[in-house]
Write a structure and sequence with these properties.
Number of helices: 18
Low-confidence stretches: none
Bound molecules: alpha-D-galactopyranose, zinc ion
Number of strands: 29
Strand content: 15-25%
C-alpha cells in the first residue's frame, strides 16, 4: 500500500504559509537605519525576522543590568508591519564582562589550554555559572516576549559545535561513564584495555581522549567522548529550552543544526525540538556545474525532514555568497531561487537568510546579505530575494504537507564516528558520507523521495532500506534489520558492514557477523586499493543486471563467501576474480542485497534504479527527467510538482499528457517545459479537457 500524504499544522501557529526572512541584527546599527530596514523588508517580501542571536551584551551590558528597550521597539515595528519574530537566546556568544568575571566559562581546547575571550561558541558546555546565566537570560526573554503577538518561535543559541576539555567537562565525563558502565571492569572490557597496558584501575585515571596530547587508541573511549559531548550539548540546549517552556509555554522551540556536521548527533536533540531547522551554505567550489553539491544539499534536507518526520525550517542560507568560502563565487542568476525552492521541494516550510543587512565591520563584513553595502534595492541580490518572496506566497498551499517516503537511507552518526575512529582499512578515502550520497543519488535522479535516518529509527514503515557501510551495528539493530527483511522489506548493504559493536570491538567469526543470516554471506578479508587502481564487477545473473554487464570497482573490495545467497555479479580481476561481488539473499518474505565493493556511478544507477522499478516505488512525476534535473511533489490542496534544474545548461523536460500550470504565473504547459540553467518551476497538474492539451501542445512552441 502506498503511503498517503499527511497534513501538519503550520510550523508556527501564527502563520499558515511559507516563512521568508532571516537574521536581523539592528543592534549593530543606529536607529536611523531601522526605519529604512522596515521599509525594505516589506519590499523584500519578508514575513519573519530572527532577532537576538548574538545580542547578549546589548541586552545585559553589565551583570544584572538589563536593557531590553531596543528589542521592545523592534518587536513593535515588526508587529506593526505584520511580520513575525523568531527570538533567539544569545548564549552562542558570551559578553567580555562575563568571560572576565567567570573565566571558567571559557572553553578549553583538546590541547588542554583554556581559550581567551573572543569569537563565538567559545564557552564550556558544563560550566554551572554559564548554565545559570544563560538560563536566567532565557527566562527573562520568555517573561518579556513570551506572549508577544509577533513571537513565532524560539531559536535557542546558535549552531552548537565543538568540544570542551576543561576539568569540569572531564569530571562530568567520568560521571557519565560510571553511569554507563557501572564498574571499571565493564569499562575495561568494553575498551579492550589490556592492549598497551591501558587498563584503568581508578575512575580518576580516565581523561577525555583526543589529539594532539590525548589518548587516540581506545576507540570505545573516543566514541563515548563524542556521545558524551552530544549529551552535554543537549543538556545545554534543554537548560534554556526548559526555562522558556516553563515561563511561556505554547511557542515552538528549536535550534539551527548544521547538516552532516559530525560533532553533534542530531537524532539525540531532535526529540527536544518542536521542529527541525538547519543552516545550509553549499559551497559550489567555483564549479556550480557539478550537480553533486545540489545532491548533497537535497540529502541534508531529507535528513532534516526525517528528524521529525514533518516539515522543517531552513533557518539560514546566504542570499549571495559567504566570506567563509575559499572563493566567494556569486550565485549565478536563477541559483538563488533554485536553492530556496529546493528546500521547500524537500519539505521546508520556511526559508531564511543570514543576514538582512551586511555589517560594516568585523568578521562577516563581506558575507552576503539581502541589503549589501551598496544599499541598492535595485541590486540583483535584493531583487532576487524579493522575487522569491512572491514565489513563496504562491506556494502557501504546500505548507504543512508531507508524504512519508517508501525508501530510507541509513546515515548514522555513531557509524560515522566509528569509521573515522579506527585505524584501517585505509587512511584516506573511507568516505562514509560520500558513499551514502552515492546511494542517495539514484533516488534524487529518479525523483523518488527518500528519508535519511539513523540505525535506531523505525524501519517498519519503509519498503526499501539502504544501509551502506553499516560498520557499527548497535544492539538490536541486526535483529531489527533481519525482522525488516523477513517481513517483506528489501535491504541493501555493502562492504565494511557489521564489523564492530557499539564499543567498536570487532565481531569475530566473519563480518558482517550479526547480519550474516539475513544476508546469506560472510566476509573473509577486505582489500584496499590505491587511488589509481580498479577492478571490475561483472554481472553473472540476469535477475537484476544483464549478464556480462560490467562496472568499475575502486577503493575497497571485500572477499566474501556465499552461504545461502545467490550471486548476481562477480569480480573481473585480481586474484579474487570470479568471486562473488554482488549477492541477493531471499530471507523470509524479503530480500537482502550485499554489495562487496565500492562501485561506479553506473552501478549505483543500475542496482538502485532497477530496485525502484522492481518495487514500483512512487516517483514524483510520471515522466523521465534529464540528468541533473530532479523533481519532488508536495500534495496539499493541489499536487505541487517542483522541477529543479541543477545544471548550468538549459533543459527541456518532457511532460506527460495533460495541462501543467505554473503556480505563480498561471502559464500552461503541454508536452514540455524548458528550464534555463539553474532554472526551477513549480507546476500543478490539471487533467485536460478533450483536445485542450493538443491545442496547447501545438501552440507551445509559439508561446
Ligand atoms: C552560520 C551562523 C551565522 C553566520 C553564518 C555565515 O550559519 O549561524 O551567524 O555566521 O554562518 O555563513
Ligand atoms: Zn568545559
Amino acid at each position: 500500500m502506498k503511503p498517503t500524504s499527511k497534513r501538519f499544522p503550520p510550523l508556527v501557529a501564527k502563520f499558515p504559509g511559507i516563512l521568508h526572512g532571516g537574521d536581523y541584527n539592528p543592534e549593530q546599527w543606529p536607529k536611523a537605519v531601522w526605519a529604512e530596514d522596515d521599509r525594505l523588508m516589506a519590499k523584500a517580501n519578508w514575513n519573519v525576522v530572527t532577532l537576538g542571536i548574538f545580542s547578549w551584551v546589548s541586552l545585559e551590558p553589565e551583570e544584572g543590568r538589563f536593557t531590553f528597550e531596543w528589542l521592545d521597539e523592534i518587536f513593535e515595528t515588526q508587529a506593526r508591519a505584520g511580520r513575525l519574530v523568531g527570538l533567539a537566546t544569545p548564549s552562542a556568544a558570551a559578553p567580555a564582562w562575563l568571560s572576565k568575571k567567570y573565566p571558567e566559562t571559557l572553553r578549553t581546547g583538546a590541547d588542554g589550554i583554556r581559550r581567551r575571550h573572543g569569537n563565538r561558541v567559545n564557552f564550556c558546555w558544563t560550566s554551572p555559572v554559564y548554565r545559570r546565566k544563560t538560563r536566567e537570560m532565557a527566562r527573562r526573554l520568555a517573561e518579556r516576549y513570551g506572549n508577544h503577538p509577533a513571537l513565532a518561535y524560539w531559536h535557542v543559541s546558535n549552531e552548537f559545535g565543538g568540544e570542551c576539555y576543561c576539568e569540569l567537562c572531564q569530571a562530568a565525563f567520568r560521571e557519565w561513564l560510571r553511569e554507563r558502565y557501572g564498574s571499571l571492569d565493564a569499562l575495561n572490557q568494553a575498551y579492550w584495555t589490556a592492549f598497551w597496558s591501558h587498563t584503568y584501575t581508578d575512575w580518576d585515571q580516565i581523561e577525555a581522549p583526543g589529539a594532539p596530547h590525548g589518548e587516540t587508541s581506545i576507540m570505545g573511549l573516543t566514541l563515548d567522548w563524542k556521545r558524551f559531548t552530544t549529551d552535554q550539548i543537549v543538556g545545554f540546549y534543554l537548560n534554556e529550552a526548559s526555562a522558556i517552556r516553563e515561563t511561556a509555554p505554547g511557542v515552538p522551540v528549536t535550534t539551527n543544526l548544521m547538516g552532516t556536521y559530525d560533532g553533534l548527533d542530531p537524532w539525540k536533540i531532535a526529540p527536544h525540538l518542536d521542529f527541525a531547522a538547519w543552516d545550509s551554505y553549499p559551497f559550489f567550489s567555483g564549479r556550480p556545474t557539478d550537480a553533486s553539491t545540489w545532491v548533497y544539499v537535497s540529502f541534508t534536507h531529507e535528513l532534516n525532514r526525517s528528524l521529525k518526520d514533518r516539515p522543517f525550517l531552513l533557518m539560514e542560507s546566504t542570499p549571495s555568497s559567504s566570506n567563509w568560502y575559499p572563493v566567494m563565487r556569486l550565485k549565478r542568476p536563477g541559483m538563488h531561487r533554485l536553492e530556496e525552492l529546493q528546500a521547500v521541494a524537500h519539505g521546508a516550510d520556511g526559508v531564511q537568510y543570514f543576514q538582512w543587512r551586511q555589517g560594516r565591520g568585523s568578521g562577516e563584513q563581506f558575507h552576503g546579505a539581502v541589503v549589501a553595502h551598496n544599499q541598492r534595492e535595485d541590486a540583483r541580490v535584493f531583487r532576487e530575494v524579493a522575487e522569491l518572496g512572491e514565489d513563496l506566497k504562491a506556494l502557501s498551499g504546500v505548507a504543512g504537507t508531507h508524504k512519508p517516503a517508501e525508501v530510507a537511507l541509513v546515515y548514522d552518526w555513531e557509524v560515522a564516528w566509528s569509521i573515522e575512529a579506527v585505524a584501517g582499512p585505509c587512511t584516506k578515502g573511507r568516505d562514509y558520507v560520500a558513499t551514502v550520497l552515492d546511494h542517495y543519488r539514484p533516488f534524487w535522479e529518479e525523483g523518488v523521495p527518500a528519508d535519511v535516518i539513523s540505525s535506531d529509527c523505525d524501519f517498519g514503515k519503509y519498503r526499501l532500506l539502504i544501509a551502506p557501510m553499516l560498520f557499527m551495528v548497535k544492539p538490536a539493530v541486526a535483529e531489527r534489520l533481519a525482522a525488516f527483511v523477513k517481513d517483506g522489506g528489501t535491504l541493501v548493504t555493502t562492504y565494511w558492514s557489521g564489523v564492530v559493536d557499539e564499543h567498536v570491538q570487532a565481531f569475530v567469526g566473519g563480518y558482517p557477523q550479526p547480519l550474516r543470516e539475513a544476508l546469506g554471506i560472510v566476509s573473509e578479508e577486505i582489500d584496499a586499493l590505491y587511488e589509481d587502481e580498479l577492478n571490475t564487477v561483472v554481472a553473472a545473473s540476469a535477475s537484476l543486471f544483464e549478464v556480462g554487464e560490467r562496472f568499475e570497482a575502486r577503493g575497497l573490495c571485500e572477499l566474501i563467501h556465499v552461504e545461502t545467497a545467490e550471486v548476481l555479479a562477480t569480480y573481473g580481476g585480481d586474484f579474487y576474480a570470479g568471486r562473488a561481488a554482488v549477492t541477493r539473499n531471499r530471507f523470509g518474505r524479503g530480500e537482502a542485497y550485499y554489495v562487496a565493493s565500492r562501485n561506479d556511478k553506473a552501478f549505483q544507477k543500475a542496482l538502485l534504479g532497477r530496485l525502484i522499478d522492481r518495487l514500483d516505488l512512487e516517483r514524483a512525476v510520471p515522466f523521465d527527467l534529464p540528468e541533473g534535473v530532479t523533481a519532488t511533489r508536495r500534495s496539499g490542496d493541489r499536487d505541487y510538482v517542483f522541477l529543479l534544474n541543477c545544471t548550468a545548461a538549459s533543459m527541456r523536460i518532457p511532460l506527460s499528457r495533460g495541462i501543467w500550470r505554473d503556480v505563480r504565473t498561471g502559464s500552461a504547459f503541454g508536452d514540455w517545459i524548458d528550464l534555463d540553467a539553474f532554472g526551477s518551476a513549480v507546476l500543478v497538474f490539471e487533467p485536460a479537457a478533450r483536445g485542450e492539451d493538443l491545442i496547447l501542445a501545438a501552440n507551445q512552441g509559439r508561446a
